[in-house]
Amino acid sequence: MRDEDFSPALLAWYDEHARELPWRVGPNERGGQRPDPYFVWLSEVMLQQTTVAAVTGYFRAFTERWPTVMALAAANDADVMAAWAGLGYYARARNLLKCARMVAADHAGRFPDTEAELLSLPGIGPYTAAAIAAIAFDRPATVVDGNVERVMARLFAVEAPLPAAKPTLKAHAAALTPVHRPGDHAQAVMDLGATICTPRNPACGLCPLGPACTGRKRGIAADLPRKSPKKPKPVRHGIAYLARRADGAWLLETRPEKGLLGGMLGWPTTDWSEVAPDPAPPMPAAWHDPLLEVRHTFTHFHLRLSLRLASLPADMPGPFVAAKDFRPSDLPTVMRKAFDLAQGALNQD
Ligand code: SF4
Question: Which residue's CA lies nearest to atom 1 of ligand 1?
Fold first, then answer.
């Protein structure tokens, strides 16, 4: 199979087997209909570091509540951060709002249609710019995510390990990108990686590229792509302070814009460091140590967050959120884990 023969085989497969995704206009629904760039952008930002299964519900909730980029641009920051809670990588949510507002203010609510212009928007890196240009505007951009890297490594039996092999894999993906239906081609490679050329057990017998796949021929497909050994993640320690007033209100703070979980609602905590943290209670109180610890893994470290609890009188002043306004689902996952543990302990008191 020559390079120019890959895409027709892949597109024929995609026309029959494309995944149905809420942000996608599938090959059978096309009839001249283009995907909504707002949907493509929103889904691609949500999918960074996150699975389709985890994103689908969030995507539906966002587009029901904010059906256009103009509606999202006009949204209240706290509402968007709360709606994003649980998806992780919260800088994405802050950039989402910045980007929506820039598209509204500088582009009259229309996403630009070239990779270069898309790259100038907040939170849009090379991958996302290429994905939007290809999927929403049918530009022959080279879209390379983890699925595409895996398919390329196997098709061309690239044995150099990731991440060093990235430029080679991208060059292979670029060489295969067609001028005809480049958006569908990009989605077809991703779908192939997600459903057939899967990480552990590639279903080579069902693969439209099987006859041309060097990794398959050499019997090494399942071992590719190779990866350089990862450095172990350090462990950081911190203390979270959870206080509930007698009227049911909780002491919560909005975290600073910059830094981890920036702009999200959370419990006051100490710094998170590799040595035992200095206690930093947010207010004088009879803080009680329930000997409970939250464990959570971020991209670059594991966190061990021990808890301190306090029951306070109903008239205690401070940044309390009334029981009727408090929704645990507005908290990022690590803070929700702390809440789940603390609630059990406080209810036993
Ligand atoms: S033949 Fe197998 S290894 Fe090669 S691309 Fe298809 S599924 Fe992946």
Answer: 210
pTM for this predicted structure: 0.82
Checking 166-172 for CB contacts under 8 A at 24+ apart, the result is 169/144, 169/225, 170/142, 170/144
What is the CA(124)–ligand 1 centre distance, in A? 30
Query: How far is the C-alpha of 75 from the C-alpha of 66, rounded, in Å?
Result: 8
Question: Helix and strand tally (H, E) in the chain?
Answer: 13, 7
Pinpoint the alpha helices (H) of 85-227: 91-106, 115-119, 126-137, 146-155, 166-176, 182-195, 214-217
CA of 281 to the centre of ligand 1 (A): 55
- With a CB cutoff of 8 Å and minimum separation 6, the contacts of 133 are 113, 114, 115, 118, 139, 141
Residues 158-186 pLDDT 10s: 999 999 999 999 999 999 999 999 999 99
pLDDT in tens, 119-153: 999 999 999 999 999 999 999 999 999 999 999 99
